[in-house]
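Thread: Newbie trying to understand structure tokens

Hi all, I'm a second-year student working on a class project, and my supervisor (Dr. K.) asked me to get a predicted structure for one chain before our next meeting. I've only ever worked with sequences, so writing a 3D structure as a token string is new to me. If someone could post the tokens and maybe explain what I'm looking at, I'd be very grateful. Here's the chain:
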Amino acid sequence: MQNNSVGIVVPQDFSFGQTDEDALCLDCGKKLKYVNIRYETYGKLDSSSSNAILILHALSGDAHVAGFHSENDRKPGWWDEMVGPGKSFDTNKYFIVCSNIIGGCSGSTGPRSINPDTGKCYNMDFPVITINDMVKAQHRLMVHLGIKKWLAVAGGSMGGMQAIEWTISYPDAVDSVIAIATTSRLSPQSIAFDWVGREAIMSDPKWLEGNYDDIAPEDGLATARMLAHITYLSDESMYQKFGRNLQESDKYSFNFHRDFAVESYLEHQGQRFVERFDANSYLYITRAMDYFDVSARAGGDLAKAFSEVKSKFLVVSFSSDWLFLPKQSKEIVRALLSGKIDVTYCDIASVYGHDAFLLEAVTLGKLISDFTRNRYLEVQND
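---
Reply by user tm_fold:
Sure, no problem. This is what the structure looks like when written as tokens:
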């Protein structure tokens, strides 16, 4: 185990909504009862509870952001390079919280959870959720943990959407935001990719209108993942990693089995994904991303939508990200600046595409470390 790892981490659960009055009111107009939030914490909350940072995961992420679940665990949390003693999110200094979103499949209430009204899995009876609904559930966790204000909320991709939502829904609860490789709304192209991914799942005969049991629609989910994974990379990174290399022979097979290394790679990614993710969760989460549009709540005026924001921002994009383009980050920055909101922006040169927020640990880590340190010092001196 690494010397600068947070070590063994035990997942925790927070449940609420046992009564109708305490249920989570969703944007779709329905209420969600008996909600469970799976989360992990790292470091210690100081006496003034002013050192708490919330890390928000992307579509396929979960609450396990750092460390290991057992001594035999070979794979650390998904952002382990960034979270730990002396790292960018320094657990010697900060109290880090990461929770699995509602609608997910890693411990928090989602489509494969038991519907208390029927005693069976929700499946497609689970209500449609939004990014705002995810944040409302996280706010319940915040209150449960006794945290009055986050020093920072941070996330990449869909995690960045949640971070932005926090500043609008709970402007007094967030000192600063670290929004990485994200957007204030999905582009038509991104919505289109989500649609095709969902169609792949729902066209799988094993999907059974979402009522599958032990035999899941693995082929459809794997196809959806392969399609999405292409959007996370860049043409240059794929060329550097695979080129036109053949996988198993030095000649074409002249059939339709995999010939190229990139085909084998995508097949591997699809198979790995179905081992840990639920197809119905994929439907619900991608739809939540589609519906996210900050400017829509202010008649299309993004600056006006940010008018009540009180947080300081660090916005980061990556030059080769064609899923959430740098121009989408710049749009956020311009809107914040027009409202005289303190914002720092950096576009990092990278060949890794959208996945750069997970891979450019050195450059990104330095930005985050400096930003959080400055915010922490300012908060402590107030």
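A couple of things are worth pointing out once you decode it. The mean pLDDT is 96. Residues 12-187+293-381 form a domain with the Rossmann fold fold (CATH 3.40.50.1820). Feel free to ask follow-ups in this thread.
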